[in-house]
Amino acid sequence: MSLLYKLTHVFCPLKLPDGDDHCHLHDLALSEAVWTSANDYSTHLDNHEKSGWECVKKLLQNLRDAMKIHQLEEDCVAAQLESMTAGDVVAYLIRAQNAAIVFRRGAEETTAESFEVSPTVEAVMGSCGRLVCSYPGPAIAVPNVVFDDAVFRVELAHFLCEMDKDILDAAPTTHKAGSTVSEERDTVHPRYITELLTGILRAVGRPAEVQRINKRIGDDVVWRDARLPWRRSSL
């Protein structure tokens, strides 16, 4: 099943599942497949090209390690942040907030970039063709003298791990039988990462100018006789 999941979510073929096929083990298999592919690719590079590829391999290995359990683990996140050296990049999928955050270590500063990982149902269904999204969202540069403080890293790791599991008021709602209930079929607004965490980091850093890209998103919403619709993996 994990092979079919990888093929479906990587290549997004014309025939898609009728409903949600997501589970933690499938996303773990997807992260392992990407990491393995990066390692295999590096064996075909010339020696002078391999050094630049080591950063990519480390990024994907850290992402795979962070995905090994159903929720982010504070010790794992804190250890990865502590081990960063100049040129390193680490990324975390903050599942409950429909967001991701990427840390890029520089010689003097570490940049935190955040963005939404899955567009809303309305955005996907309302687009003519593929949806065009810009990445990343807000970016904050934090001085390494602050980022290297052990207390700061522990609190940052704790915040990310709590946000990875907490369902807050950013979840969409709908009305049923006169009551307001959570709308499970749509995506959560990522504001607790893209706005709240950005504001917290802004207090100890500064807005950063980063290179942004526009990407055509191959996503879809397929829902036939299922509790939840199929959506492309946010990973």
Give the spatial strand order of the biggest sheet: 1-2-3-5-8
Reading the helices and strands in chain order gives HHHHEEEHEEHHEEHEE
Largest sheet: number of strands, sense, barrel closure: 5 strands, antiparallel
Nearest-angstrom radius of gyration? 19 Å
Give the N-terminus to C-terminus distance in angstroms.
17 Å
Number of strands: 9
Helix content: 40-55%
Strand content: 15-25%
Provide keyphrases for this structure.
alpha+beta, 235 residues, globular
Give structural notes.
This protein is α+β, with helices and mostly antiparallel strands and 235 residues long. Helices cover 41% and strands 20% of the residues. The chain has 8 helices and 9 strands. It has helices at residues 2-11, 24-42, 47-66, 74-82, 121-126, 144-147, 150-165, 191-202, and strands spanning 89-94, 99-105, 109-116, 131-135, 139-143, 173-176, 179-182, 206-207, 213-217. It has a 5-stranded antiparallel beta sheet. The protein has a two-stranded antiparallel ribbon with strand order 4-9. α1 (2-11) packs across α2, α2 (24-42) runs antiparallel to α3 (47-66) and α4 (74-82) packs across α7 (150-165). The mean pLDDT is 89.
